[in-house]
Design a protein that fits this description.
This protein has 495 residues and is of the alpha/beta class. Helices cover 28% and strands 26% of the residues. It has a 13-stranded mixed beta sheet, sandwiched between helices. Strands 4-3-5-6 form a 4-stranded parallel beta sheet, covered by helices on one side. The protein has a 3-stranded mixed beta sheet with strand order 24-25-26, sandwiched between helices.
């Protein structure tokens, strides 16, 4: 079976030929606002001919760093079509373990751990778009096609490699892991970055079945108007992204939001946020939990999951989850411990990193670094991440709990917390604040005091311009310390 010829681009090319005049991809305000399947095939053929000229060898890793999402997608497909392994970059560097032979990008400049920089020319898309004989590119199921970068929330991003066969299996699972409404949808608005696992999977899923996928384009208002123009049926985003869109819709009542349902991944969805999103954006919210390493592990209707703080969903068929202690001994239901998971589609190692692989992949299980518990009905409740849990004088708390309390203060647009040692070496909580308006530190402290135990109220509030976040909108906690130090000499709060 592993020797069977298959390529992740094959189903998309099929749709191009039988669904030619239907819309395929849209990103308002970009060089291409929207394209049909016929235009997608033309561009894919033109880009394939161009990349063949660079002399790559099958199986080599090539990075893609292109801001225009349509060009980013089609170029990535062209590279995978001829047997290359693609990885979408998050900045001007890639983990050295990937051994990338080149990066294709729009802008010149140095790139860490990659020697060959190929500047992408828009003329590539206007070349010969005549059909190619795909038999010459035939790939096998077990050949690698895509490396997904882990979230890197602590600054240590790793690569997870998947074959063409594994990607097919992951897409097949999406039909039932996202509940019944998802499988009936043909048009999706995706606000997840292309370097994330879900961002890329959703592109493959929608294009492979003849659907349409829309991205946030350079024209934000134009994108929001296009949602109704193209009758987009669902949305995929993170809790942070959902909150940002909700602010717009609440401030602009003239804009209708017609999503049938919204998929929320990348963090726990709070009841307060869900209630407001139900009222203004969609009556159906679906929560999901998983990792780039494993794919989907749990899913649920937000009306159920938001009733339990930290609940992320019910364990899916074909997925397994266990709660274990520090010695990997399984714990009984309801007891908090270390979460470990496994799925049939999971990777078994990090690309080129056996040391980290040995810690995170053990005995057929993947350890995502979360702690939590399982209920008797298989509802998974995640308390936070082991590596980011704050320890203040022996009292421990998940940073997201403190951040949620701060974020509900009206003048706060975004925030993140870290712990720093004081002059006596005692850990204390500091909060980085992106203000929405001028605020009083005293009022903010009182707001926190009404929601947090005294030891967990930040001792200092530091005003910053932006909280660093990755493509899944997760806070890049490895960058917070540097950001806090850079602002240590300035004003700590707006008054």
């Amino acid at each position: 079976m592993d020797g069977q010829a298959v390529n992740i681009v094959d189903p998309i090319l099929f749709q191009c030929r039988v669904n030619a005049e239907q819309p395929a991809i849209c990103a308002p305000g970009a060089n291409f606002d929207a394209m049909t399947y016929a235009q997608l095939e033309y561009m894919l053929n033109a880009l394939t001919r161009t990349v063949l000229q660079f002399g790559f060898q099958r199986g080599q890793v090539v990075g893609v760093l292109i801001g225009n999402k349509i060009l980013h997608v089609v170029l990535s497909l062209a590279l995978a079509r001829i047997g290359l392994v693609t990885v979408s970059c998050r900045g001007r560097s890639l983990p050295k373990e990937l051994g990338a032979v080149a990066v294709m990008t729009e802008t010149s400049g140095p790139f860490a751990n990659v020697d060959r920089i190929i500047l992408v020319d828009w003329e590539w898309t206007r070349g010969d778009g005549a059909r190619l004989d795909d038999a010459q590119f035939a790939t096998k199921r077990d050949e690698l096609c895509r490396i997904i970068l882990t979230s890197g929330s602590t600054g240590l991003a790793k690569g997870v490699a998947f074959s063409h066969g594994k990607m097919f299996e992951k897409n097949a699972r999406l039909d039932y892991t996202r509940l019944d409404r998802w499988s009936r949808s043909a048009r999706m608005f995706c606000d997840l970055g292309l370097s994330s696992s879900l961002g890329f999977y959703y592109v493959l899923y929608m294009l492979s079945r003849g659907g349409m996928i829309m991205f946030l384009g350079e024209d934000t208002v134009g994108t929001l108007q296009a949602l109704n123009l193209f009758d987009m049926e669902n949305m995929a985003t993170s809790p942070y992204g959902l909150a940002e869109y909700l602010k717009f819709y609440e401030a602009e009542p003239a804009f209708r939001c017609n999503f049938d349902h919204i998929l929320v991944a990348g963090g726990a969805l709070t009841k307060q946020l869900a209630a407001r999103a139900w009222a203004r954006m969609s009556p159906y919210l679906i929560t999901t939990y998983g990792a780039a390493e494993t794919g989907a592990v749990a899913s649920g209707d937000a009306r159920i999951t938001t009733e339990v703080p930290g609940a992320v969903g019910f364990i899916l068929p074909e997925a397994e989850a266990e709660i274990v202690d520090a010695e990997d001994r399984p714990l009984s239901r309801g007891k908090e411990g270390v979460v470990r998971v496994r799925t049939a589609q999971a990777a078994d190692r990090y690309f080129g990193d056996p040391e980290t692989s040995a810690r995170r992949f053990r005995d057929g299980w993947f350890y995502p670094g979360d702690f939590g518990y399982l209920r008797d009905d298989n509802l998974l409740v995640v308390g936070g991440r082991e590596e980011t849990r704050l320890n203040v004088g022996g009292d421990k708390i998940n940073p997201e709990i403190v951040e949620e309390a701060i974020a509900t203060f009206p003048a706060v647009a975004d925030c993140a917390v870290i712990s720093l040692g004081n002059e006596l070496g005692i850990e204390e909580i500091h909060a980085l604040i992106v203000p929405r308006a001028v605020f009083s530190e005293t009022d903010l402290r009182q707001h926190c005091a009404a929601r947090l135990q005294g030891v967990f109220i930040p001792v200092r509030f530091v005003v910053v311009e932006k909280i660093p976040r990755n493509d899944m909108a997760k806070i890049e906690r490895g960058k917070l310390m540097e950001l806090a130090r850079a602002h240590s000499s300035g004003a700590t709060t707006a008054r």
